[in-house]
Amino acid sequence: MFKIVEKRKLAENIYEMKIAAERVARAAQPGQFVIVRVNEGGERIPLTIADYDAEAGTVTIVTQTIGLSTRKICALEAGDALADFAGPLGRPSEFVHMPLEELKSRKYLFVAGGVGTAPVYPQVKWLHEHGVQCDVIIGAKSKGMLIYIDEMSKVGNVHIATDDGTEGYKGMVTGLMKELVEVEKRSYDECVCIGPMIMMKFVCLTTKTWGLQTTVSLNALMVDGTGMCGACRVSVGGKTLFTCVDGPEFDGHQVDFDEAMRRQSMYRNQEKSAESKPEHQCNCYGK
Amino acid sequence: MANKIPRVPVREQDPLVRATNFDEVCYGYNWEEASLEATRCLNCKNPRCVAACPVNINIPEFIHHITEGDLRAAADTIHKDSSLPSICGRVCPQESQCEGSCVLGIKGEPVAIGKLERFVGDWALEHADEEDAPHIEPNGHRVAVVGSGPAGLACASDLAKLGYQVDVFEALHKLGGVLVYGIPEFRLPKERVVAREIEAVKRLGVKFENDVIIGRTMTIDSLLDEEGYDAVFVGSGAGLPRFMGIEGENLNGVLSANEFLTRVNLMGAWNPEKSDTPVYVGRKVVVVGGGNVAMDAVRTAKRLGAEAVIVYRRGEAELPARKEEVHHAKEEGIVFRMLTNPTRILGNENGWVTGINCVEMELGEPDASGRRSPQEKAGSDFTIDCDVVIMALGTSPNPLIASTTDGLNINRRGCIEANDMGVTSREGVFAGGDAVTGAATVILAMGAGRKGAKAIDEYIKSKR
Fold first, then answer.
1. Which of B274, B270, B276, B236 is nearest to A36 (CA)?
2. Which of A101, A266, B285, B440 could staple B444 via S-S, CB 3.0–4.6 A?
């Protein structure tokens, strides 16, 4: 069992939990995820890592209630425990392996959408700790749905976009990206985008016109998460890859997003019938 | 001289009933039946069955103990060579091993060695409490075992008996590896058999830790250098499922047998009242492949209410599955489309499977492996309508451990390189089972685990 040390509400239906998981905390790196099982009979679901503290032995996850399992997780309180917390899984972000000198000369633009802001945080934080300051666009539907603004502001240059304009730039993240690149003439070596699949698709379409290398983190369906079931396969550059062992980060310009979105919805009908009272119909794909 | 009684038939659930439930198909022998069957053994001077057993169980001896009514002695005989008789008695391909070599099989039916092994194994599990907890003097050395499947369990229990402190690291939330996620309940009961076999290993003092993925949570290097283990045995099993590379394989409704069976077995999706994990079978399922995993998948799909079809590119004689599984599958109403090869999976406008295009095959000359290789019959295209396609084509190795361990060589198929005793290119690291051989059988993995234990013992002693 893995104890929930702390819990806090970040926005409507979005919760942050700090989990006591010493081994995972010691091994975690930016870009990786965990598989969580809430209790006996629970699903194994992949959740991205929002932060980790090797010394304290804790790993932070941010969960949005989008289905039966995420609702069960979010219903737990500090002091409760998760049945399973396995990881860290997936390959760490590529920059972790880059020579520091090369890295320091690189300019990164991070684009985070909704609950996808959480997994962007450890990447920006890691780069900040290694002397690389990055621009970070955080997008959400409206002000109330923005998360990790304070945390992110401490480690990166935050730019906010909301669909309704209640905070920062009014419009989609792609609009704000154009502001930075086309109007302010900022130049980048790489864009890293994590958020709803549909947002990542459009960010990639935008960066492709600039020839800006773009990395995305996919949240495919998984069962074991260790390279056994193949549920998470995704077409990248015409090749079938496994998100859990080959990813979760891929070259966004090569990803077949339409197929990925369709595959993500494979069990949606059954999920709905399993839910006794769907209280929140969300049209984004939370991490 | 042996009597002339025919092989004692084993009682089984009625095929029409069992095709709707997940209870074990075969009831196994009771004492009377086992005693009678045991009298059929000729107790050959030169027992071919022993040589044909991958772990060389002294078969005539344990059967002789059954005729004497001494099941404790029978169990002790088996346990000298096998750690998992209840499991192997159920899932070994006896017809190509022990029973395939039985002299009685030349003119008639071989002795039902598998059923007798299962009988003794089950008896031993039921009477495990009466056994005194073994007192083992600790030798002060620690060994880490990666994976709690048949290879890991066998290795761990042998080492524990030698006095080693053994810690087994399992990636999944349940112990047993393929015995739990792969082989279905109706062939291998999880609580009554697998969990009890693991209990027996725990009683030897072996410790298990779930949710630890070696290669990610910890590495082999950290086990040896930081955690202070004297040696590591890698029994991490087979890996990534293979697909055919044909059009339509990423449609919704196409899945690997690994995924399908993991959802149903490990996650318990066959029982939606107790499990949150969904599984989808639709009205008709096509399973591609002819091995044991294909049989497990197709029979599972049938039990979940679908019309279930096997598509295999060679003929029935070439099916690699155990004969018993094929026989059981047919009894349960599985349709077998032999000499049929998929060429394309068809989908609707929403990306869901609607059917599978196939061609008929004919067998040509035997190839290097001795099997007649199938060739397409020109112009024989046809379509099978279906909602789900399950690919049961084997696996290729999981790269996690090899890619994170310095000095651990892999062969050109990506499997960990190890000799017959499990010795790898890296000092202190031993390996066995599917991680080394690619997908094989429970008994071979168990045998490899035991050899690994022996090699580890010799390695650690040589260093003292």
1. B276
2. B440
